[in-house]
Amino acid sequence: MSNASAQSYAHDDRNDRVLVHVNGQLVPRDRAVVSIFDAGFGLGDGVWEGLRLVRGRILSQDAHLDRLYEGANAIGLDIGMDRAALSACIMDLLAANGMEDGVHIRLMVTRGVKTTINQDPRFTVGGATVVILAEWKQPNAALKARGLRLMTSAIRCSTPDVFDLRLNSHSRLNFIQALNQAIGMGADEALMLDDRGFVASCNSTNFFVVRGEELWTSDGACCFNGITRATVMRLWRQAGGVLREGNFTLAQTYAADEAFVTGTLGGITPVASIDGRDMRGGVGGPVTARIAALYADYVGG
């Protein structure tokens, strides 16, 4: 596993023995399987969430479930249980694994098994497939100190009329393509533009720049509906900081003092360079450090 990914984490042997929730059953990790006729496996037809357990508390649980059920509703997917029942499944899994802190949860819901693999949802038989995977994961401290190297990809973020990123869909091929390009150019992650050439997102995280004392991020039309992104924006405003949501270009990004990305697992990860240009304010400059401190206080609860 690369240690230079925004999704990297410290190895933990306990993950080899975790139980996984598969359609109501708790099974050992090596026996957690779904059918080859599952709509998620064959077509990427489903929605998912990544959640983080810290000191017995799931961060922003309501916001994550809001996004999951909204996405499922948008694609006509019946999860087959209400929020209370799904939350109970998550807590039962955590209890069975003896998990209380430092855990990342991947909640995956697909349309379910089909009689054959095709796009038509009417070929689905039975209910949705629900998988919950919980693993001990701590963010990569060395990466936070070193910072991410970003490279702008030729692959663009999609517009809502083509592929709405707010759905948190299982389909991630364009982001994988973007990341492959960045890796091929010697970078850690991809910076992605929207259809007009404005800065939108990274391939797996949301992107921010700092110019002076101002925090800039995209207008949200073509980036992930990030829960951590929304939390950082709220915390910065509450602290009296200036936040600008809008369009900005690569040229304005190159002139920024600092940059960082946000995500459920990594929280706040500083950016060291973009397209070979070192950030003017260095890695984890003063504004990024203040925001990271605000987020750490929030996480510590």
DSSP summary: helix tally: 8
Question: If you consult CATH, what is the topology of the largest domain?
Answer: D-amino Acid Aminotransferase, Chain A, domain 2
Overall pLDDT level:
95
Could you say which structural class the secondary elements and strand pairing correspond to?
Answer: alpha+beta
Taking pLDDT < 50 over at least 5 consecutive residues as the criterion, the unreliable ranges are none
Describe this structure in words.
The protein is an alpha+beta fold. It folds into two domains: 13-136, Aminotransferase class 4, branched-chain amino acid transferase, N-terminal domain (D-amino Acid Aminotransferase, Chain A, domain 1, 2-Layer Sandwich); 141-300, D-amino Acid Aminotransferase, Chain A, domain 2. Helix content is 28%, strand content 26%. It has helices spanning 39-43, 61-74, 83-96, 141-146, 173-184, 227-238, 250-254, 286-300; strands at 19-22, 25-28, 46-54, 57-58, 103-110, 129-136, 148-152, 189-193, 199-202, 206-211, 214-217, 242-245, 258-263, 267-274, 277-278. Strands 7, 8, 9, 10, 11, 12, 13, 14 and 15 form a nine-stranded mixed sheet that branches. Strand 7 (148-152), helix 5 (173-184) and strand 8 form a beta-alpha-beta unit. The longest helix has 15 residues, at 286-300. The two termini are 31 Å apart. The mean pLDDT is 95.
